[in-house]
UniProtKB/TrEMBL annotation:
SMART domains: Mab-21. Pfam families: Mab-21, Mab-21_C. This is Transmembrane protein 102. The gene is TMEM102. It comes from Erpetoichthys calabaricus (Rope fish). It comes from the Eukaryota.
Amino acid sequence: MASLINAVAQRPSPPGKMAAEFDFRSGANMEHVCELVLDLVQFEQREFDDQTALEVHTAKDFIFSMLGVVQKIDQRLPIANEYLLLSGGTRDGVLDLSPDSLGDYAKGADYDLDFTLLVPALKLHDRNQPVTLDMRHSTPCHSWLSLRLCDRATLSRWQSCCKGVQDGDQSDGYYFSPTLVVDWFSGAVLKAVNELRRNPQRGTPVPERVERNGPVTTLILTAGTSRILYDLVPVVSFRGWPAVAQGWLMENHFWDGKITEEEVISGFYLLPCCSPPSSTDLLVGINGGSQPDKEWRLAFSRSEVQLKKCIPLPLAHAFQAAKAIISKLLARPKAGVSPYHLRTLMFWACDRLPSTYLSSKESSVQGGLLLGLLDDLAHALLNKSCPNYFLPQCNMFEHLSDTTVLLLARKLACVRSDPVEHLRTAIEQAKVTGHLKNGPMSAGSSRPAEDDRLAKRLQQLVTENPGKSISVFLNPEDVSRPHFRIDDKFY
């Protein structure tokens, strides 16, 4: 009997040959999914050629020259300002902003490259400068900002952008108003752009569109053969770390031992964005406790730049693929869910899962990580639970209605049931819209040797620092000439 059982038993795979791994839900071959992920990443991460690098540089020069004009309009912006340049537009999920108000722009149709620039209206970096973050009236991750304790010069510059709170017969007119700041900034940018248009210089980019989109002022520049989109966001910039997020530092995190705590907590921002109304408030037609004219949103963009350096490459590729897949899924209808929430889930996954798994070079791992991110997003939606990574007490999905959650969950289930087809669609889209110019300049064209050296140097910086953010300083003596910093290196 034993010999008969052995005869009919399933024979093991030949030594050295691994059985193919399949996704139980979709039946997809995981190695094939991984191959498609790598193909998509390859199409989306093209290196700049010399010409494109030069065009990107001249567009940056135009933006900083324009901000120099903004500063000259009424001397409100700090002269020696420090900006944070993020790769990708606000619709790409680089900031926690509601997608509802960011406007519709399509890569390939409207622009070729996109960036987000955080522009400090106030730099509260002086340790001796008392600052009052008033969180008594706000939901977690939001605050009012009182300028009552600021110096007279600051109050004088910004008094027209402050709001008051009625207290009996008195009005406290010291709360820095995000809506008034955005109104001023958007108008000042338009004035500055129009001034530069009246005095065009040969070789400078041409501003094709200047538009206000909620808290964002969007510029699309034509520089040579490139159309470059800039989302400009006025912010309040702080050094150090807010007390409300101190608890996060007490926990264990995936970046421990890879970067220092000082790098992670070097600073934070206030974004001109209020808390979303709850689903209950929307049903009865009120805006709940949020006050758009006084409420700012805490943002930890500097910290996120540092944390991205610690993301294992397979997970970074999976995130890029997942973001490409869901971007169209989330575009219609716009329901308050953006790729920023997927980025948050990626950070939580890094804390939850072993780094050996996230960094594995096994051929099917990236496919599994992609599907895992999609599963995490579906779970977060159905439970209406997506804690902010730095302030877990803030649930970024709390405001979603049941109808919205079910609609998005159904769409996500369709993606999850056939990831191969959606990856192929994303690859075709990247081929059509994500193309960046390659190859040398055509024969007969020429540029000054200095421009060639500049283009090659900028190309080297971009290649050596993929996905990193760049701080930019304006020289007080010449606001038209920027100085770049990538992490701690100056150029």
